[in-house]
């Protein structure tokens, strides 16, 4: 059997991905304690407010002014999968839907024909650091699904399965199956028009947490599937005898099993895989279509309709500090989590 490694690359920002994915934005912000107004204690002096990606002091405000995050902005033609492993996200959108999620929760949003949303990072803790660890993955949609109605579904942390493997020396690997199939676990996208809702598309999104020196074998999948792993925590990772440094990605042959071994510091990985859509991709900021003419059309549509307008009092809308995790859907359905 040949070596399953295709290529090892250093990670850029945003992380490079393979079809059907567009990219992955990785945020690891060590925010200070909150100031009582959901913003950072000590202020934001010296930052390029409105466009702060500096990482100064270990964190950024991004497009937020008083609260870090991303005020209202449009999307069309693709999906976002937001994995909030640490910290919180306040969601609001042009359909009147809203939510607060985090600390292991995942939001899966199909933008489809167009939606505006805000993603703010409220700093609720006023007596301790507010650590945000977040992945936002952009998953493309095929041409037939570019204009489906927008929709989001929640994968609450308590409901996401974790599959455990113990190697011959007793070292544990824990795999959080956000999407895909592993052993008896079969999980597909909660959004009905998602590319990942069809098992034939072989989409998998896993978070893999390997104990120090643990060994784990990625099972084989399909030959026509693209597969990548991303080492975001740990000194290094042994992949079939090749040493992969921290903050590197490995493109793999999905049809072959792949042996992994963590270093003495352990390893945390993101796995992304899926059958390629194989269609032309035209991108313009938050819009992803198949041609530049379609980009012009959807941009004109947004200028005319604002994808339903903005029903919230602020483009950087946040929820009450004492509000627990919740999701209010566009149809009025309310999910409350403790």
Could you explain the architecture of this structure?
- This protein has 338 residues and is mostly beta strands.
- It folds into two domains: 1-12 and 161-279, Jelly Rolls; 21-46 and 58-158 and 280-317, Sandwich (Jelly Rolls), CATH 2.60.120.
- 4% of the residues lie in helices and 44% in strands.
- The chain has one helix and 25 strands.
- The protein has one helix at residues 292-305; strands at 5-10, 21-31, 69-75, 78-86, 88-93, 98-102, 105-110, 115-120, 130-140, 151-155, 162-166, 172-182, 185-187, 204-210, 215-218, 226-233, 236-239, 242-245, 248-253, 258-262, 267-274, 282-284, 287-289, 326-328, 334-336.
- The strands form five sheets. Strands 1, 11, 12, 13, 14, 16, 19 and 21 form an eight-stranded antiparallel β-sheet that branches. The chain has a six-stranded antiparallel β-sheet with strand order 3-8-5-6-24-25, with no helix packed on it. Strands 2-9-4-7-10 form a five-stranded antiparallel β-sheet, with no helix packed on it.
- It is globular and about 60 Å long.
- The model has no long low-confidence stretch (mean pLDDT 97).
- Residues 64-139 form the Pirin N-terminal domain.
- Pfam families: Pirin, Pirin_C.
- Belongs to the pirin family.
């Amino acid at each position: 059997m040949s070596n399953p490694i295709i290529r090892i690359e250093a990670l850029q920002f945003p992380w490079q991905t393979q079809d059907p994915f567009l990219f992955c934005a990785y945020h690891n912000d060590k925010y200070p304690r909150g100031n009582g107004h959901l913003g950072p204690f000590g202020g934001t002096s010296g930052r390029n407010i409105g466009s702060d990606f500096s990482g100064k002091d270990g964190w950024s405000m991004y497009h937020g002014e008083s609260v870090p995050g991303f005020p209202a902005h449009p999307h069309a033609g693709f999906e976002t999968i937001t994995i909030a492993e640490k910290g919180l996200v306040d969601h609001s959108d042009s359909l009147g839907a809203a939510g607060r999620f985090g600390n292991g929760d995942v939001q899966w949003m199909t933008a489809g024909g167009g939606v505006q949303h805000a993603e703010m990072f409220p700093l609720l803790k006023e007596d301790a650091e507010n650590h945000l660890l977040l992945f936002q993955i952009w998953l493309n949609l095929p041409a037939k699904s570019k204009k489906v109605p927008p929709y989001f579904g929640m994968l609450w942390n308590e409901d996401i399965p974790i599959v455990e493997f113990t190697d011959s020396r007793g070292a544990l690997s824990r795999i959080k199956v956000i999407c895909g199939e592993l052993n008896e676990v079969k999980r597909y996208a909660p959004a009905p028009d998602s590319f990942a809702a069809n098992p034939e598309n072989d989409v998998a999104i896993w978070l893999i947490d390997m104990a120090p020196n643990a060994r784990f074998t990625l099972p084989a999948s399909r030959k026509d599937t693209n597969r990548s792993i991303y080492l975001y925590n740990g000194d290094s990772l042994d992949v079939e005898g090749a040493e992969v440094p921290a903050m590197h990605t490995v493109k793999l042959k999905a049809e072959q099993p792949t042996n992994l071994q963590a270093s003495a510091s352990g390893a945390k990985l993101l796995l992304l895989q899926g059958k390629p859509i194989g269609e032309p991709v035209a991108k313009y900021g938050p819009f992803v279509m198949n041609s530049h003419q379609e980009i012009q059309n959807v941009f004109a549509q947004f200028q005319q309709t604002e994808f339903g307008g903005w029903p919230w009092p602020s483009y950087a809308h946040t929820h009450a500090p004492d509000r627990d995790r919740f999701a209010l859907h566009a149809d009025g359905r309310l999910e409350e989590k403790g």
